[in-house]
UniProtKB/TrEMBL annotation:
Organism: Geopseudomonas aromaticivorans
Upper taxonomic lineage: Bacteria, Pseudomonadati, Pseudomonadota, Gammaproteobacteria, Pseudomonadales
Coiled coil, from the record: 64-91
Name of the protein: PilN domain-containing protein
InterPro entries assigned: Extracell_DNA_Util/SecSys_Comp, PilN
UniProt key word Flavoprotein: no
Length: 207
């Protein structure tokens, strides 16, 4: 019976398997490296794209902030201009009224009375003056009360002052309210209407 030596064939087969294993292992390593590289490139690209988006959003936010600031400044300037316009309109509207008020103060001033100080706060006028007698002060109060542009005179102080040994005067302080004829008529109409409603209510209650 012939004997066959199988050792060389087995060694060759073992070497072939070993080579195939190494080739497969290398292919797996190369594939894994390629995947890692591709994943790294993808992530880097996504990060750069997101950073670009963030930069764009920051620029837009900065532009919006600048516009909002500009709008706020424009609103502030508009309010300042409106306030100035209102002041100018009030001054122009009150100019004839102030002239009428000062004219009425002169017209209501009786003989023997003169003013030493005037102070106007809103519609309230504070007056200081001197008169030859109390009767002159009373005449001034009646004239103020009869004026269409002045109302509610209120004497706050009056006292006799002697200058030297002969001259004597009555120094007084009073307040009076600035008004207008149309405002006074409207106030009187409102008062009359309120009084009429009150009378009707009283009549209804008595019935």
């Amino acid at each position: 019976m012939a004997r066959i030596n199988l050792l060389p064939w087995r060694e060759q087969r073992r070497e072939e398997r070993k080579q195939r294993f190494l080739v497969a292992l290398g292919a797996v390593l190369v594939g894994a490296a390629a995947l890692v590289f591709a994943g790294d490139q993808y992530l880097n690209g996504a990060i750069e794209q997101q950073n670009a988006r963030n930069d764009y959003v920051r620029k837009e936010i900065a532009a919006l902030d600048a516009r909002i600031k500009e709008i706020s400044e424009l609103k502030k300037r508009r309010e300042e201009l409106l306030a100035r316009m209102k002041i100018i309109q009030d001054l122009q509207g009150n100019r004839p009224v102030s002239a009428r008020v000062f004219d009425q103060l002169v017209r209501t001033l009786p003989d023997g009375v003169h003013f030493t100080a005037l102070k106007m706060t809103g519609k309230n006028i504070a007056i200081q003056g001197a008169a030859e007698s109390n009767n002159r002060v009373s005449a001034l109060m009646r004239n103020l009360d009869a004026s269409d542009w002045l109302a509610a005179p209120n004497l706050t102080e009056v006292k006799a002052v002697t200058a030297g040994t002969v001259d004597q005067a009555n120094v007084f302080q009073l307040t009076v309210q600035q008004t207008r004829p149309d405002e006074e008529a409207a106030a009187q109409a409102s008062a009359s209407l309120a009084a009429g409603k009150a009378q009707q209510a009283n009549k209804g209650a008595t019935k």
